[in-house]
Design brief:
Elements (H helix, E strand, L loop, with lengths): L2 H9 L3 H23 L2 H17 L9 H21 L33 H17 L2 H12 L4 H8 L3 H19 L19
Helix pairs in contact: 1-2, 2-3, 2-4, 3-4, 4-7, 5-8, 6-8, 7-8
Length: 203
């Protein structure tokens, strides 16, 4: 696929070219929205809104990572939905603290790889635990962690997608991973052995 050519054609009004771009990124867009919103219907709506916004804004695209540009639309649609939700009574998000920002290596079990048959049950429970803990992250941490650790985007692309400096992205990912890891210790028995805290064995 010549993405540059497709984008150029779409900018000239070729709807088929734009639809081909949508097919490339619709799964990633939905996955990001679902991880952000924890609701399939809301994720589908946010993805649709994002692609409509992208189509209407094609003239403003000036090159660079088209994937990052599209993910910015998705992230903005999710933030809009989250702001709507916050108008209702909710449990406050965990406040940002001053914990050590040393980066934790991206955990492999965050990826969307298909589990083997014997892992289906445990994997399903772990997926639920991960989504629950992702939902507890502050919105800006969640977006950065999802794009880097789940969608496999690099820091520079995420910087473009959320329109924040590279250092801010790295800090959010590092702190988000730390909070996520701490939350997941509450689901200790579901975690792969290499990610369990050793103090469980010393009790």
């Amino acid at each position: 696929m010549d993405e540059t050519a497709l984008v150029g054609a779409a900018q000239k009004g070729d709807l088929d070219a734009f639809n081909r771009l949508v097919l490339v990124y619709q799964e990633m867009a939905f996955n990001l929205a679902y991880r952000m919103l924890s609701d399939e219907d809301a994720a589908a709506d946010a993805s649709q809104v994002a692609f409509l916004s992208a189509y209407r804004s094609l003239s403003s695209y000036r090159g660079g990572s088209f994937r990052a540009w599209v993910m910015r639309m998705v992230t903005n649609a999710c933030y809009d939905e989250l702001r709507r939700r916050q108008r209702r009574p909710t449990t406050p998000l965990e406040p940002m603290d001053n914990e050590d920002e040393e980066e934790i290596e991206s955990p492999a079990w965050l990826a969307d790889d298909d589990p083997s048959p014997e892992q289906v049950l445990v994997q399903g429970e772990l997926e639920h635990a991960i989504q629950s803990c992702l939902g507890d992250l502050p919105d800006e941490f969640r977006a950065a962690v999802i794009m880097v650790d789940v969608e496999g985007m690099d820091y520079q692309e995420v910087s473009l997608a959320i329109n924040k400096p590279l250092g801010t992205v790295k800090s959010r990912v590092a702190r988000g991973r730390l909070k996520l890891r701490e939350c997941l210790q509450g689901f200790w028995e579901l975690l792969p052995a290499q990610f369990r805290l050793e103090n469980e064995d010393k009790l």
